[in-house]
Design goal:
By secondary structure, the chain is α/β, with parallel strands linked by helices. The chain is built from 19 helices and 9 strands. Residues 1-208 form the EAL domain.
């Protein structure tokens, strides 16, 4: 997302134990040269984010969840944060904030006003830390402070009723260990990776095969609407979902049959929606955020492709983005997940071997997700796309994915 001329932002989900999204941490930079939260750049960046949030609307950016935003000392003691509803904002107190009477008084004031406060990247002696009484959430970075090294701090914090957030959780085993220790919130990319054992792999494979029959027909030189309708009509749930999608495209006309519904869509749009519905079905036992990420990646990949020399490969780029989480949805490696799916060489190379131009788009997307701004700049220059355009496409993708999620799950 671009805020003004120089503000770039990304978001990372924060999960509850049941893998519902509790909120999003907003990662940002104020200008091209700024890659860290230090001095005035941190103040400018956070102020710009808050201003941008007010303009864009929280519902678009954090989807009516909590917004975790970093605050340094200068912003903490200003009144800018009070522009945001206390029921939406989580104030992340940076570890670099110097503890003094002014900060203590401000923390007390904010807590009394009902703001939720988190201590970010906590590495201090918990028992003696003077600001702990004001914080509801304690964040531990599992790279800086591995779980085995913080057991005593964890016990002390839990005994005082704190909510513990494990940050940079990269594997399922880390998630399970943190959960067993009493952590209630989790942040990291563990949710987008396959687990070791898939509980319902057979069921998911059956679902995948159903969609593959549709794909096989769509890939024929002259696909038959009659054959497609017959396949879809045998699945009540799929028929219902497709009719909901068609409702917006039929311009008020009554749709009496699946075959009639398909004619409103056209083959390319049908192909896109069938893939989206497959991802939703395969992700039925996964966090909804994984489907959300797939949709954002799909749209963002398409937008990037259209803005480059790959504009004729926009649908391939979209497919690559959508299927980039298929291994996690099916709990198997990507090669096994893609068996039986007839993909173009460009899509296969990107997903299976991280090679080719679509792979560059995938890397741009992942850099955006992680807030790895310098890497993003480099990759964007290789693709001859402007960095600020990528952020604009990202926000467009978030809005589009939000609309699709409402259609799929409401």
């Amino acid at each position: 997302m671009v805020l003004g001329d120089t503000m770039y932002i990304a978001r990372q989900p924060i999960f509850k134990v049941n893998m519902d999204v509790y909120g999003y941490e907003l990662l940002f930079r104020a200008k091209k040269e700024s890659v860290a939260y230090d001095g005035l750049s941190a103040t400018s960046a956070t102020a710009s984010v808050i201003s941008g949030l007010m303009e864009e609307g929280f519902s678009t950016i954090v989807d009516n969840k909590r917004a975790f935003i970093n605050f340094n000392e200068e912003l903490l003691t200003s009144d800018v944060l009070e522009l945001i509803n206390k029921d939406t904002l989580v104030i992340e107190l940076l570890e670099t904030v110097e503890v003094n009477d002014s900060i203590k008084n401000r923390m007390k004031e904010l807590k009394s006003a009902g703001y939720e406060i988190a201590l970010d990247d906590f590495q201090e002696d918990y028992k003696g830390y003077p600001l702990k009484e004001y914080a509801k959430i304690i964040k531990f970075d599992l790279i800086r402070t591995p779980l085995e090294s913080i057991r005593e701090s964890v016990r002390d914090a839990l005994s005082e009723g704190k909510i513990l957030l494990a940050e940079k959780v990269e594997t399922e085993s880390e998630f399970l260990l943190a959960k067993s220790m009493g952590f209630k919130l989790f942040q990291g990319f563990f949710f987008s990776r396959p687990t070791i054992v898939g509980k319902n792999k057979a069921v998911r494979a059956s679902t995948q095969n159903q969609y593959l029959r549709i794909f096989k027909e769509l890939q024929k030189e002259e696909p038959s609407f009659q054959v497609l309708a017959e396949i879809i009509e045998k699945d009540v749930a799929l028929s219902y979902k497709l009719l909901r999608v068609i409702k917006e495209k039929s311009q008020g006309d009554l749709v009496y049959s699946i075959k009639k519904a398909l004619s409103y869509m056209g083959l390319k749009e049908l192909d896109r929606w069938i893939r989206i519905l497959m991802i939703q079905d395969l992700g039925s036992e996964k966090p909804k955020e994984l489907v959300y990420v797939s949709l954002i990646r799909s749209k963002l990949a398409e937008e990037i492709a259209v803005s480059t020399h790959l504009k004729n490969a926009r649908y391939e780029a979209s497919m690559m983005g959508l299927f980039s989480t298929l291994d996690a949805l099916l709990d198997m490696d990507m090669e096994e997940a893609l068996k039986g799916v007839n993909l173009s060489p460009r899509v296969s190379s990107a997903l299976l071997h991280s090679q080719g131009e679509l792979s560059l788009i995938r890397q741009i997307i992942e850099s955006q997700e992680r807030g790895e701004w310098q890497k993003l700049d480099l990759l964007a220059s290789v693709m001859n796309v402007k960095e600020e355009e990528v952020y604009g496409y990202y926000m467009k993708a978030v809005r589009w994915a939000k609309e699709v999620m409402e259609l799929l799950y409401d």
